[in-house]
Structure prediction request, 514 residues.
Amino acid sequence: MHRREFLASSVAVSASGITTRAARRSAKDHSIYNMGSRRELFLDDFLIEKTRGKIQFQLHHPQPRELVLHMNDAWEGTSSGYTTMVQDGDKYFMYYRGHNFDLVDNQIRFTVPESTCVAISDDGINFNKPKLGLYEHDGSKENNIIWRGAGAHNFSPFLDTRPDCPAEERFKAFGGLRHNGGMRLFKSPDGVHWSAAHKDGVITNGAFDSANIGFWDPTIEKYRAYWRYFTEGITEEKVWKPAGIRAIRTAVSDDLKTWTDFKDLRYTDSPDQQMYTNNVIPYYRAPHILLGFPMRYIERGWSPSMRALPDLEKREFRAAAHIRYGTALTETQIMSSRDGVLFDRVNEAFLRPGVQRPDSWYYAHNEVAWNIATTKSSLPGAPDEMAFYASAGRWHGEGSKLIRHTIRQDGFRSVGGTLSGGEIITRPLTFDGKRLDINFSTSAAGTVKVEIQTVNGQPIEGFTLEDADEVFGDELDRSVTWNGKTDVSELAGKPIRLRITLSDADLYAVKFSA
Prediction:
């Protein structure tokens, strides 16, 4: 499917007042999209051809909840980080680098070796650090260290979901820096006991001084990898050098050892910027959509506003050793892709630093763990929420911290209308299924209605706006009805459009279901 290189925020308005994107599509984009039974999110305007009235795209932000992990043991410390969440059934594994430094005579001094540690939870909220007895620290193996040596700097595990993956290798991980071979591959049967899968690194062309990741992509039935590099970092002699902008590179593989199709990520309508991590994953409710949560890195320098940020004395103390520990700021963005290379990156922050408080607004603050977990809502009877785990409290104090943040499922971005109302009309599509389910939220006065049209825009009898029942409430999967009926199977496989009206309502996702 051809990919349009524009965002919904930059569209043309016709003389009739209808906002249209059709004029900006290539001939390929006029083709009928086979939606099947996939869930489609409104992270971009891929599904939308026209809008009318007061329609807007709204970015939603995860809300902070509680401290879930304090990396304050002797083998951890203030430089602990690069966290990865792996949810395996009813078990939650939180992997992270244990590390610490202090500042002596304006010099950064590392005081403990880098270790990969794990904390385990039954609910994604209450974590414990198991005493595994695998690696020694200060004469004792009473710790939660699972790996030391090459790879421990940025050890990033994932659950290998390839259908024929051997049970003894169902956990995998990438880790390593350029000076020790690049991205190395590791394997484990249980997420605790690890071994190297190969002697040497499997990807060697890059910077790698960040969290570098890989996973099985069920849509293309291949592995993908994403890693840190610098633009203009490869000379004409094919020798890497650290230059340019912190950026991301990708490749694919059948076996995690031999990699092909190396490409640099591209972005729609987005300025050049420094991105420290990538955190790309297939979205678990719509795996044909790849989501990324890169950490944006910004050098802002000294100014009155910088001096008004929290902990000025500590900020100046750190800056004396290295300026970025004083004046660099970070936050997490969101981006999405359907081909793994061209991403729609939302230019506004997904997870801002937030209200000023101690241990906030600094370099590596609000770096989110790779992967999304689902955790129970604090409201009895409410559906599970998505959990993001973000860093706090680094560089000073007793050790890094991890804060859980939550957001509704599919709730990254919505298309919405004011109370006066607006509407969207989709591109031509076909579907499989018997009913149309939507993830939506309205006010008590708000409403959503859906009309099914022919490709030429004619309402289909029985599915017109007059036939459509008002939908209101707040639900992840509500079936739309027309005159009290949900059945749309007579239209399955036929080219149609959806006309969706929105009044004081947000629409997050649509899906045809059996």
